[in-house]
Every structure is written in structure tokens, then in C-alpha cells.
Amino acid sequence: MNVIGTRPDGWWRDRDAAMARLVRELEDYSAASGDDLTVVFERMPRPALRSSLVEITAAPRPGPDAADFEIARRVEADPAPHTIVVATSDRWLADRVTELGAAVVGAAAFRDRLG
Hints:
The protein has one domain. 43% of the residues lie in helices and 16% in strands. The protein is built from four helices and four strands; from the N terminus they run H-E-E-H-E-H-E-H. It has a two-stranded parallel ribbon. Strands 3-4 form a two-stranded parallel sheet. Strand 3 (85-88), helix 3 (91-100) and strand 4 form a beta-alpha-beta unit. The chain is globular, with a radius of gyration of 13 Å. It starts with 14 loop residues before the first helix and ends with a helix.
């Protein structure tokens, strides 16, 4: 939700629609850039989203910062964390994944890349 929340476009009125819009933007970006992308939500969107270009996942348990903890866990488990770039505006997550070897881009800066 860090990336979605960078634009005050009313996303909070329909979080599921906002998640679907983000996935479409990520698909367009992935198709143009060739980058492998994963989006980690606090919960899965309803209805469920599918993509052949973007891995869509959610934290295993709901709760505050659940997606942040799942992102940190994934970076820690990855055999090549130096190949990962995490988009976040959360200081704790940025510090944690940087310690693990990943790079960080601010959520707003990443959203700007999406167009």
C-alpha cells in the first residue's frame, strides 16, 4: 500500500480496485522493462488477481506492517538479495532489506517510474 498511497486519488474508498490498478501498472512496466516484479499486499485483493507478468502475493497473516515483514522475509530467504530492489516508504523495511543486501527505491519514486 506504500506505492498505492503515494497518490491521493481516492484509493482508500476502494482498496481492491486500487490494488487491481497497481497490478495493471506493474504489468505495463514489466512488459516494457523486462523486469521481474513481485507485489506483496497486506491481504489478497477481492476478487483474486492473476498476472502472467507480475507475481501477486500477500502476507501470510493480516496485521499492521504484515506486508513489510513478508518482504523482509523474502529478501532474507533469497540466495541473491543483491539483485532485489524494494519499493517502500517504510524506514524500518528500507533499513532491514539494505542490511540484507537489497537496494531500496522510495515508493513515490517507484510510482513515478510506472507512469
